[in-house]
Amino acid sequence: MSRTTVSLVLNNVRDIKISPATRQKVMDAAERLGYVPNAAARALVSQRAQIIGLLLSRKSHHISTDAFINPIMQGLLDVFRQHDMCLLIDIVDPDHTKEAYIQLARAKRIDGILFSGPRLDDEALKLLEVDGFPTVLIGQLPGTKLCVVDIDNCAAAKSAVAHLIRLGHRQIACITNAQLTYSAAVERLRGYQCALEEAGIAYDPALVRFGDFTIESGYEQMRNLLAGQTKFTAAFVASDTLALGARAALSEQGLAVPQDVALVGFDDLPFARYMDPPLTTVHLPVSDLAHRASEMMIALLSGDHVPCDRVILDTELIIRESCGASHTSTVMKRKEEKEGERIFRNNL
Amino acid sequence: MSRTTVSLVLNNVRDIKISPATRQKVMDAAERLGYVPNAAARALVSQRAQIIGLLLSRKSHHISTDAFINPIMQGLLDVFRQHDMCLLIDIVDPDHTKEAYIQLARAKRIDGILFSGPRLDDEALKLLEVDGFPTVLIGQLPGTKLCVVDIDNCAAAKSAVAHLIRLGHRQIACITNAQLTYSAAVERLRGYQCALEEAGIAYDPALVRFGDFTIESGYEQMRNLLAGQTKFTAAFVASDTLALGARAALSEQGLAVPQDVALVGFDDLPFARYMDPPLTTVHLPVSDLAHRASEMMIALLSGDHVPCDRVILDTELIIRESCGASHTSTVMKRKEEKEGERIFRNNL
DNA sequence: TATGATAACTAACACGTGTTACTAAATCGC
DNA sequence: GCGATTTAGTAACACGTGTTAGTTATCATA
């Protein structure tokens, strides 16, 4: 019984004639010995590592509180499992070696890259495009030909702020989710500006602050806003994580939400509905994003024609109580939330 | 100029004579071509994949809200980066193929396994032990010889509950962080029981509920407790994530924290200090856990003698306001938190 | 100049698999 | 009974690297 026979049997190669007896003998032996083909040898000959890299483009210390990562990972693994793919994770921190992830690609340690949260100033990303390395962006990047799976951050943010305007607010503060090197932060800020403009409200930089992914930054920036001269009756915080910190800063100053300051978040993280008051926020279809991204990657790798290289998923404005638009009684509010929540689809 | 010369130069092999001119020529060419040695070929010949697997032992849908994972990943990557190691992530869900992760090991796709949150009924783990595969548990497992990095869940839980007792509470409810198939859940429950026992309080199963990692389960189980006949004035929720849900259930019923029900959590997740009121909780040195675990793995792989195969890190009870022991004014509370927080070291 | 030592480089093997081309045995058609 | 076809199995190469042993050129020494 040769090595070849074993390979043929274990890989279940079609249209090949192996007697059932031999086949069974091979299976038995493999089972008995706990034999599993060596991944490196297999990768070497097949030119496929069967590993996809998920690259998180943000500072290392921002990973801890990033609630976006987990559902993405879960979604990816769900799909990968069905294709015998593995998931490798790495951080792309501008403070580290710039081309670290390019090396992963060139060494063929990974077959493809899912790139989350691209930065506008990431030069290495362009290298990937030149190399023609299979890449899917989770998030957008102006002027790239790479595959993209994302939401319309601008439209989503606009709908959130428009909602506040609809409720009568004119002085609306904004805290971005991150610095403007991150494309999502730029887009969400732009949505804020668009909503103001459409309502004929002048954009006032004194009401805008820049966060950096963390709860702390939400807290600090809200304190900063409150310490400023310009008054506001509502705030759009472009990340639920930061909204949590912002709310803490508000109640620390004795300000009630939504009575004194109406609050709207972004992301609809799991805790948003359990905040006090429950947070009005933009729902991000994180799970869908992950599924679409991973399926696009699989298609890219299998050489199939990729039908659409630009997927923009719908978001929804989930209206809870932090914006002051909900009027269900406090006691029963959460019980009826599913019915009580009003949803505005942003991309119809 | 042969392939061998290139290999020698690029790997910076010591005690080998290569003329500076040749050396430079090699470096230049590599730079120009963007050459990076093929990982699979390297792994095949060196018998090292340079990849460590982080295995998350919990149900797939519990990954989303598990705030423990991110800081662990961050800590691991910090250490791995210095050793040219990569991080591969996978979920060990009892509903999937049991031996999926054993295959990763046998295929030598990964050099070692960091196993987070071992379940008592995981049979495959014993296989790893038999195989002698480099493994470090993050969390404990009775009767294993594997390396362990963990905290003393029992002592930590005990100190939290003892604190409530010290404040005068006698009817103390408990919601576990997970089902009792997870060793950490068992230990935390045991800590709760020990504290009661030492104070001469009878253990009442009517005051105990079992969570499952999610905010929802905290919410549901607290509602369940409140709907029960047995009254309580305090609750120990063995996970901050669940505590968030529990607090929502309390305020939904018009119960104030800590006036009506004192609350103590576990984990000291980033949001704990920003809850309203700030959550008294047990601080888990997550970052340390990750560092110690990864360093232990590196030592294991380098064949060094591993000095200690069982590292138990200290926890601290962080006293904020949800337990009713803090008396700083509400307005200034967070500002003075760092000084105002009282800390009890659990393992001296 | 002959001898040995050293510097600089290379040919050849090993790693464990997938795959192709080939051989031997068995079966079939007439 | 004999060539043609099908069935079952194998030898040999390729994948891209690290490494060992070996081969020239260069140079110092007696």
Write out key terms for the chains shown.
3 domains, homodimer, DNA-binding, Rossmann fold, 12 helices, 348 residues, alpha/beta
How many structurally independent domains of chain A? 3
What is the strand arrangement across the widest sheet of chain A?
2-1-3-4-5-11
CATH superfamily placement of the largest domain in chain A = Response regulator
Shape of chain A: elongated
| Strand segment count of chain A | 13
Distance between the termini of chain A: 62 Å
Task: Give the fraction of residues assigned to helices of chain A.
Answer: 25-40%
Give the topology string of chain A: H per helix, E per strand: HHHEHEHEHEEHEHEHEHEEHEEHE
- The helix-and-strand class of chain A reads alpha/beta
Unreliable residue stretches of chain A: 327-340
CATH architecture of the largest domain in chain A: 3-Layer(aba) Sandwich
Quaternary assembly: homodimer
User: Strand portion of chain A, in percent?
Assistant: 15-25%
Rounded average pLDDT of chain A: 90
The DSSP helix count of chain A reads 12
Largest interface, with counts of residues having CB < 8 Å to the other chain, equals: A-B, 65 and 64 residues
CATH class membership of the largest domain in chain A = Alpha Beta
**Main beta sheet of chain A, described?**
6 strands, parallel
Which topology of the largest domain in chain A does CATH recognise? Rossmann fold
Task: Report the radius of gyration of chain A as a whole number of Å.
Answer: 25 Å
